[in-house]
Amino acid sequence: MPGYDCRSAAEFTTMRFIDALTQHPEIPIFGRVEGLEPDTDDIRDWEFDPIDAAVLRESEISDFFVVKAKHVLPGGTIQDCYLDLCLPERISDYAYFLRDGEIEFRYHHECDGDVVCGVPIDCFGVYELFYSRIAPDVGINILRNGLNLSPHRQYIAEDLGYILRDERRFAEAAEAFQIAADGQPSSYFIYGELAGCYDELGDTERAAKYQSLFASHE
């Protein structure tokens, strides 16, 4: 898939968090390298490898990543930032902001507005990481770009479908859920989502088809 291959870690030097962000502003993903830093919980002392990839996927090397993100302010202004991610659970605690060569970090709930993950994720998890209720198209566009870059499109398609469903854009949501259903959906609930979308669109035949598929798995 174009844009999906990672540059090998050998092409970069493992470095401290602040150095990784400031020296490689073009890199979207940074993976923690454990065992190289002192015994500390302070992320500023941790070592990271830059990962030049358009889509985040699970790795045997690390399960903790810092990725590019978008901070959508209440007035609609969008600023660049970063957020942390633990895979496969998609746990994210902090958003990170570069200010004059220093790192500021805050819990998500302490940030005004929304913090949206800027890198599509190639595994199942909570779609809210991509959902800005202030500017939904920020996350929608990130996910749509990712659909063309990932070999496992169903996970990104599901994230996209849930956001479009919540925005009541049912025709677009059905297209996204259909991609997931035609592949290997994360669960049979996707059939129920498709049934609901087609019902909203007045497509009773396809609504009945996917409702039947959903019911057969309950």
Automatic annotation (TrEMBL):
Xref: InterPro entries: TPR-like_helical_dom_sf
Protein name per UniProt: Tetratricopeptide repeat protein
